[in-house]
Amino acid sequence: MLRNIDLNKKFTLVLTIVFMIGVLLSGLALSAILNRNAENEVTTQAEMLMQTMIAVRSYTDKQVNPLLAARLDTDPQFIPQTVPGYSAREVFENLRTSNKYTSLFYKEATLNPTNLRDKADTFETKLIESLRKNKSLNELRGYRQIGNENLYYIAKPLIISEASCLVCHSTPEAAPKSLLATYGSKNGFGWKLNEIVGAQVMSVPASHIQQAAQRSFLIVMAVVLTAFAIAILITNILLKKAVVYPIKRIVKVANEVSTGNMEAEFEHSSNDEIGMLAIAFNRMKISLSMAMDMLQRRN
Q1: In sequence order, what are the residues at sequence separation of 6 or more whose Cβ sits closer than 8 angstroms to the Cβ of residue 264?
Q2: pTM of the full predicted structure?
Q3: What does the radius of gyration of the chain's CA atoms come to, in whole angstroms?
Q4: Host domain of residue 76
Q5: Whole-angstrom distance, CA of residue 73 vs CA of residue 54
Q6: Mean pLDDT in each 10-residue stretch from start to end of the chain (299 residues)?
Q7: At 188, is the secondary structure helix, strand, or coil?
Q8: Cα–Cα nearest to 197, from 228, 139, 157, 137
Q9: Which of 162, 163, 161, 180 is nearest to 114 (CA)?
């Protein structure tokens, strides 16, 4: 099939194939890079929020809890603001009222929590068990499915690093009366110092990562396609001027010579292969002319 296609169309076909292969490979590489960059961006945001929650926990434990600790045995109901995890969760829920953070989720998933809203589900339990088995892990990252939503998560171990936490979580007998009155004596006990009892889990819908990557992909690919198209167009024009048109001129002159017009000249304005071809044709024309003169003299 290619034998019946002129040189100009062959050049265009080759350039188009090169263009398609280049765009395909660029698209695959770009997609992977943008997905990774979008994931890193979300991870950085989640890390910052996670550190904020850790700071809230520390503030509650060191400054709020000492001010209210004495009331835990006298008040009829437990004061949850003395619990670092409660403060962190409430602060984050207030943060989620902003449209910028409404799609983020934070939970201090615990194997044996006092407040059952912090009870780890099956997936979170596996995360906690992994962190407990390998204490060198500072965090876990990945994706999980909840209903129809695909979530990207970061999980950090929740370690009992302060002895003050054991006041409410060692045994029911040692716990404040208000805590027992509010939550009962079945949950949230038996914790030990330096034990991993849960995980701080920050989650964000994966669609946000994908949408951010897709937006960047479309913009960059539009630029790449435009750049490739312009490059192909310029290359095609240059090839026509430097190769196709000179060859067509040589073909035209060769046809004239073949019909007996020995005055036709093969022009050669360059010293490249096309110019050398024109010189060779001129020599051939001269040789042909000399041969014809010799035949005429013999006759």
Answers
A1: 253, 256, 257, 285
A2: 0.63
A3: 39
A4: 56-212
A5: 27
A6: 64 78 80 77 80 89 87 88 89 88 88 92 94 90 83 89 82 89 91 92 79 77 81 80 76 74 67 73 75 73
A7: coil
A8: 157
A9: 180
